[in-house]
Amino acid sequence: MSVLVNKDSRIIVQGFTGSEGTFHAGQMIEYGTNVVGGVTPGKGGQEHLGKPVFNTVEDAVKEVGADTTIIFVPPAFAADAIMEAASAGIKVIITITEGIPVADMVKANDYIKDLDCTLVGPNCPGVITPEEAKVGIMPGFVFKKGNVGIVSKSGTLTYEAADQVVRQGLGITTAIGIGGDPIIGTTTKEAVELLINDPETECVVMIGEIGGQLEADAAKWYQESGSKKPIVGFIAGETAPAGRTMGHAGAIVGGSDDTAQAKKRIMSECGIHVVDSPAEIGVKVKEVVG
């Protein structure tokens, strides 16, 4: 099993012919991902990287049955790209773009909330189901198939956690980089819930950071769910000074519950195995999986 993406996903790339879209689409195709085409307005009918180019997402859905998209559209136009994908019937919308204006994301989130789709991101590394589909910018060679799910706000720590899990002789079901912006589609709780409910996922790694309530919400849901699947948790930003944004736009301490210490306390109280250093993630996963 997997969540969100797999070998049967029919993936398009919005911003296909741009430099970022070209590079990462090429990497995805090389990985074996089922990329069925891409979208660049005004370039419909052309071919790029051996795949058809469409003017609109709607055309791609009609012509090649696309059901998943990855967005490499510049920030000023990315929210429109999200709404276009959702209205065309795309089920999984993975948005890599960083720096989308918050007001634009408020509008996009409101637009898609009643539509049958899942938004991951923006400002995220994407989603990977090892050996099936890499829909993102992560280094595919780090990920091996297995029974550990990963949810992370940090792109780099997603890869680090996967590498450690693999070095312990284990592997990954699906890794979801949810993104570090103030307004994102799939929350930590929603991503954790997907993996807890996946029959092949035996353990979840949850990587958060200072700022916001996402990790606390996920921890409380986990406690209430009564799930026996272990979660290993880490919070980045322990030494961040209050009031300063750290790396991600959403990583800023706004109140007493936003600190790394407070989040770690809440997670521990809810039954999550919390580690103090990212270097301990792989060992702790091995320990709790048994």
Automatic annotation (TrEMBL):
<dbReference type="InterPro" id="IPR017440">
    <property type="entry name" value="Cit_synth/succinyl-CoA_lig_AS"/>
</dbReference>
<comment type="similarity">
    <text>Belongs to the succinate/malate CoA ligase alpha subunit family.</text>
</comment>
<feature type="binding site">
    <location>
        <begin position="96"/>
        <end position="98"/>
    </location>
    <ligand>
        <name>CoA</name>
    </ligand>
</feature>
<protein>
    <recommendedName>
        <fullName>Succinate--CoA ligase [ADP-forming] subunit alpha</fullName>
        <ecNumber>6.2.1.5</ecNumber>
    </recommendedName>
</protein>
<feature type="binding site">
    <location>
        <position position="43"/>
    </location>
    <ligand>
        <name>CoA</name>
    </ligand>
</feature>
<keyword id="KW-0816">Tricarboxylic acid cycle</keyword>
<dbReference type="InterPro" id="IPR005810">
    <property type="entry name" value="CoA_lig_alpha"/>
</dbReference>
<feature type="domain" description="CoA-binding">
    <location>
        <begin position="4"/>
        <end position="100"/>
    </location>
</feature>
<comment type="subunit">
    <text>Heterotetramer of two alpha and two beta subunits.</text>
</comment>
<dbReference type="InterPro" id="IPR016102">
    <property type="entry name" value="Succinyl-CoA_synth-like"/>
</dbReference>
<dbReference type="InterPro" id="IPR036291">
    <property type="entry name" value="NAD(P)-bd_dom_sf"/>
</dbReference>
<dbReference type="Pfam" id="PF02629">
    <property type="entry name" value="CoA_binding"/>
</dbReference>
<dbReference type="GO" id="GO:0000166">
    <property type="term" value="F:nucleotide binding"/>
</dbReference>
<feature type="binding site">
    <location>
        <position position="159"/>
    </location>
    <ligand>
        <name>substrate</name>
    </ligand>
</feature>
<keyword id="KW-0547">Nucleotide-binding</keyword>
<comment type="function">
    <text>Succinyl-CoA synthetase functions in the citric acid cycle (TCA), coupling the hydrolysis of succinyl-CoA to the synthesis of either ATP or GTP and thus represents the only step of substrate-level phosphorylation in the TCA. The alpha subunit of the enzyme binds the substrates coenzyme A and phosphate, while succinate binding and nucleotide specificity is provided by the beta subunit.</text>
</comment>
<feature type="binding site">
    <location>
        <begin position="17"/>
        <end position="20"/>
    </location>
    <ligand>
        <name>CoA</name>
    </ligand>
</feature>
<dbReference type="GO" id="GO:0006099">
    <property type="term" value="P:tricarboxylic acid cycle"/>
</dbReference>
<keyword id="KW-0436">Ligase</keyword>
<feature type="active site" description="Tele-phosphohistidine intermediate">
    <location>
        <position position="248"/>
    </location>
</feature>
<dbReference type="Pfam" id="PF00549">
    <property type="entry name" value="Ligase_CoA"/>
</dbReference>
<dbReference type="InterPro" id="IPR003781">
    <property type="entry name" value="CoA-bd"/>
</dbReference>
<comment type="pathway">
    <text>Carbohydrate metabolism; tricarboxylic acid cycle; succinate from succinyl-CoA (ligase route): step 1/1.</text>
</comment>
<dbReference type="GO" id="GO:0009361">
    <property type="term" value="C:succinate-CoA ligase complex (ADP-forming)"/>
</dbReference>
<dbReference type="GO" id="GO:0004775">
    <property type="term" value="F:succinate-CoA ligase (ADP-forming) activity"/>
</dbReference>
<dbReference type="GO" id="GO:0004776">
    <property type="term" value="F:succinate-CoA ligase (GDP-forming) activity"/>
</dbReference>
<dbReference type="InterPro" id="IPR005811">
    <property type="entry name" value="SUCC_ACL_C"/>
</dbReference>
<dbReference type="InterPro" id="IPR033847">
    <property type="entry name" value="Citrt_syn/SCS-alpha_CS"/>
</dbReference>
